[in-house]
Amino acid sequence: MHIVWEIFLIFQAYFICTSAQLISPKIHDGWWAYKDAVQGSFVPVPSFWGLVNSAWNLCAMGKRQSPVNVETSHMIFDPFLTPLRLNTGGRSKMGGTMYNTGRHVSLRPDKAHLVNISGGPLGYSHRLEEIRLHFGSEDGQGSEHLLNGQSFPAEVQLIHYNQELYANYSEAAKSPNGVAIVSIFIKISESPNVFLNRMLNRDTITRITYKHDAFLLMGLNIADLYPDTTRFITYDGSMTIPPCFETATWILMNKPVYVTQMQMHSLRLLSQNEPYKIFLSMSDNTRPAQPLLQRCIRTNINFSKQGRDCPNNRALRPQYRVNQWLLK
Ligand SMILES: *[C@@H]1O[C@H](CO)[C@@H](O)[C@H](O)[C@H]1NC(C)=O
Ligand SMILES: *[C@@H]1O[C@H](CO)[C@@H](O)[C@H](O)[C@H]1NC(C)=O
Ligand SMILES: *[C@@H]1O[C@H](CO)[C@@H](O)[C@H](O)[C@H]1NC(C)=O
């Protein structure tokens, strides 16, 4: 009896310990990472995002997750896709604050300069909320989206929210038709994109070396960031960070923009950490490609080849005729 009691006590102590451990992990909005930290404490990497927090279930169970690998041979030409319209309200120059968030280089336009996009696959006008950079530790990786299995050194994402239906980004991000993200691949060349050149020149990028560093930029023209093309690829997907809400319409521009090798190098020298912590490069801040499943990838590139049938491909869809008896 005595022994049994002791075992019970030990068991109880063990149970209290383990349940205390279960409660103690820092389950909060910021508790995730792209790669294992060198310090050794567990922080969930992309394959665990959907398992550690029930509010992030979509990251593991979602059926329209992003990013994806775009197989160009499977794209569907949709002749009803109009060109994307960029509206800067006649004022081409804007200001914005560039941040090191610890995970991305982020640029938020100031509230005085509203930029919105419409047209293309979008039924609503969407306001620019944030510009985000993803990049690799080597030139052979870094973009979140892949094109025929190939990644690019970096990808810039312009995140917009549906300003007609929702009051702000946080409300839109979790709601239907909430978000439109324009994605532009980045390649390396000696003649950089004018907009990225402003963000990534040495004097600017070195101001945000550490987490929470911020720097104000003026006189930016968002149109300068767009490559010279009206062609794009579009599909329905999700946020590429927790909680992976499936509310995003993705628009991938059909041409890349360029940064210099030196600018790529400066990006890799950004730290995920505060200055008093160990240097940990921000590079490889990418979520792996997710299964496409039943989704279609549409494009306004007329490669004059008929794709397979697709619910969104109105061109190939038979006309719907209402039953005559319904009208009587
Ligand atoms: C889009 O932006 C332009 C210029 O700022 C503005 O005139 C227009 O009203 C905006 N559209 C919507 C739906 O708010
Ligand atoms: C966003 O809008 C919702 C609904 O209007 C409001 O409850 C919420 O406080 C707003 N959030 C922010 C961050 O402004
Ligand atoms: C697509 O290209 C084909 C061949 O050039 C052309 O016949 C067709 O009219 C084009 N369709 C549209 C919608 O532009």
Automatic annotation (TrEMBL):
Residues 1-20 form the signal peptide. Does not have a catalytic activity. It comes from the Eukaryota. SUPFAM superfamilies: Carbonic anhydrase. Keywords: Signal. PANTHER family: CARBONIC ANHYDRASE (PTHR18952), CARBONIC ANHYDRASE XA-RELATED (PTHR18952:SF208). InterPro entries: Alpha_CARP_X/XI, CA_dom, CA_dom_sf, Carbonic_anhydrase_a-class. This is Carbonic anhydrase-related protein 10. The lineage of its organism: Eukaryota, Metazoa, Chordata, Craniata, Vertebrata. It comes from Salmo salar. One of its GO terms (biological process) is one-carbon metabolic process. Pfam families: Carb_anhydrase. GO terms for molecular function: carbonate dehydratase activity; zinc ion binding. Belongs to the alpha-carbonic anhydrase family. Residues 30-301 form the Alpha-carbonic anhydrase domain.
